[in-house]
């Protein structure tokens, strides 16, 4: 009952805010990876994510290739990003984390013998206060 | 301020900036601490009862916030104060002490991260200010619960925080309520903050820090009828693991019958995460 009420209020709040933003000139909800916002003269980082990507990000199967790129939503200021850094480094098997705020991604290097799953990384991202929308292992083309 | 708010809803692509006097619906992650020492200087005018011609007050407020679990944090604050009172007869006196301590839980009950940096968040604030043990004028010698909520919206280079809270003052009859809100009347606060990321215009792979312009509207209503509205412009730098902030506070509306009006205030602070 309580959570249903909270959920309802939250949805209402989001709807109201979203409506306000969408109605304004220059505000776009398109899903390109770098959506140009004419009103602000800048690029917005909007990750292109499919439902399959979101489901794959919850997978408990170990990531192969020794590294992964995480597409993270809600990642803004450098001070906030340090939260993500700290939580990912706590996941057993994670050796190094590099955050690229220009693309809204985080590159995670894994120990060779580690069995780290997207779900584990997703929990760490949620702990940090952000939202994981896509995980790409190095073997799947996420390596750089 | 209206112009700033209008600019906010223009949209674009950043996040979680928190201004000096307004809460944000953001918090450290579990097991992470944020140490936030701040120094505030205020100059106040004459007391309505004629007991002081002017007062200068310096407050060294140190807060420590810790992430308890996902979406829940605890903040403890200790405000140490020093003041110099100029009497109408030209004499002056100085006092120092500790204002009421503050403990506050912040629970983020809503989060919608819609883009790489865009987010909407909301949190409940619940806590209490309580006697510091100071036996002079600085502590209310009472236990004063407060309850509130805050919404944070970030769109591109624009950040917006709106906080509303109510403080139930159970005592405070003898306290020097110079800054307002310490009682004995109940206090209602509304703090609005707008933050604009000056630099970088866009984040890049090598971004190590961001500069922000901040503008706040800080409103305090006390049930004794006093209205205090302040405008607080400032600048802030956030880097990887720390932030530096400098703000000013200027009176906008001061309908005060029970305490002195504010001439101006300035504040400087840092935030360090570990």
Topology:
The complex is a heterodimer of chains A (144) and B (274).
Chain A: H1 2-23, E1 34-37, E2 42-45, H2 51-56, E3 67-73, H3 78-89, E4 94-100, E5 105-110, H4 118-128, E6 131-137
Antiparallel strand pairs in A: 1-2, 3-5, 3-6, 4-5
Helix pairs in contact in A: 3-4
Chain B: H1 2-8, E1 33-44, E2 54-69, E3 72-86, E4 92-98, E5 101-113, E6 119-130, E7 143-155, E8 158-167, E9 187-199, E10 209-222, E11 227-239, E12 242-255, E13 262-273
Antiparallel strand pairs in B: 1-2, 1-13, 2-3, 3-4, 3-5, 5-6, 6-7, 7-8, 8-9, 9-10, 10-11, 11-12, 12-13
Fold and architecture overview:
The complex is a heterodimer of chains A (144) and B (274). Chain A is α+β, with helices and mostly antiparallel strands and 144 residues long. Chain A contains 4 helices and 6 strands; from the N terminus they run αββαβαββαβ. Chain A has helices at residues 2-23, 51-56, 78-89, 118-128; strands spanning 34-37, 42-45, 67-73, 94-100, 105-110, 131-137. A 4-stranded antiparallel β-sheet of chain A has the order 4-5-3-6. Chain A has a two-stranded antiparallel ribbon with strand order 1-2. In chain A, helix 3 crosses helix 4. Chain B is an all-beta fold and 274 residues long. Chain B is 3% helix and 60% strand. Chain B is built from 1 helix and 13 strands. Chain B has one helix spanning 2-8, and strands spanning 33-44, 54-69, 72-86, 92-98, 101-113, 119-130, 143-155, 158-167, 187-199, 209-222, 227-239, 242-255, 262-273. A 12-stranded antiparallel β-barrel of chain B has the order 1-2-3-5-6-7-8-9-10-11-12-13. In chain B, a hairpin with a 6-residue loop joins strand 12 and strand 13 (262-273). Chain B is globular. The two termini of chain B are 34 Å apart. Chains A and B meet through helix 1, strand 2, strand 3, helix 3 and helix 4 of A and strand 5, strand 6 and strand 7 of B.
């Amino acid at each position: 009952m309580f959570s249903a009420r909270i959920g309802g209020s939250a949805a209402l709040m989001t709807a109201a805010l979203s409506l306000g933003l969408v109605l304004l000139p220059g505000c776009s909800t398109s899903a390109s990876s770098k959506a140009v916002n004419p009103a602000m003269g800048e690029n917005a980082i909007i990750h292109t994510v499919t439902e399959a990507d979101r489901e794959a990000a919850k997978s408990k199967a170990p990531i192969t290739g020794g590294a992964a790129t995480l597409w993270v939503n809600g990642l803004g200021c450098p001070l906030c990003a340090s939260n993500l850094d700290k939580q990912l480094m706590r996941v057993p098997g994670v050796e190094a984390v590099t955050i690229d705020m220009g693309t809204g991604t985080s590159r995670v290097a894994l120990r060779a013998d580690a069995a780290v799953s997207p779900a584990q990384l997703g929990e760490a991202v949620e702990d940090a206060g952000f939202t994981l929308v896509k995980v790409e292992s190095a073997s799947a083309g996420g390596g750089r | 301020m209206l112009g700033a708010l209008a600019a906010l809803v223009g949209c674009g692509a950043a996040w979680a900036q928190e201004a000096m006097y307004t809460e944000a619906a953001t918090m450290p992650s579990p097991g992470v601490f944020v140490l936030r020492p701040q120094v505030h200087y205020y100059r106040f005018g004459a007391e309505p009862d004629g007991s002081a011609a002017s007062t200068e007050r310096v407050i060294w407020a140190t807060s420590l916030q810790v992430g308890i679990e996902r979406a829940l944090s605890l903040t403890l604050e200790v405000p140490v104060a020093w003041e110099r009172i100029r009497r109408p007869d030209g004499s002056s006196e100085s006092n120092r002490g500790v204002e009421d301590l503050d403990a506050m839980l912040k629970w983020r009950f809503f989060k919608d991260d819609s883009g790489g940096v865009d987010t909407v968040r909301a949190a409940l604030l619940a806590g209490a200010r309580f006697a510091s043990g100071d036996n002079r004028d600085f502590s209310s010698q009472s236990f004063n619960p407060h309850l509130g909520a805050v919404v944070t919206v970030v769109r591109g280079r624009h950040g917006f925080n709106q906080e509303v809270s109510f403080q139930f003052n159970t005592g405070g009859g003898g306290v020097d309520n110079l800054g307002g809100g310490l009682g004995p009347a109940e206090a209602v606060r509304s703090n609005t903050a707008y933050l604009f990321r000056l630099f970088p215009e866009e984040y890049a792979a090598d971004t190590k820090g961001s500069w922000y312009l901040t503008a706040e509207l800080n409103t305090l209503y006390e049930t004794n009828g006093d209205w205090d509205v302040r405008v607080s412009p400032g600048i802030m730098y956030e880097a990887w693991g720390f932030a530096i902030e400098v703000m000013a506070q200027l009176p906008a509306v001061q309908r005060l019958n029970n305490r002195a009006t504010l001439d101006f205030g300035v504040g400087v602070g840092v935030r360090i995460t570990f």
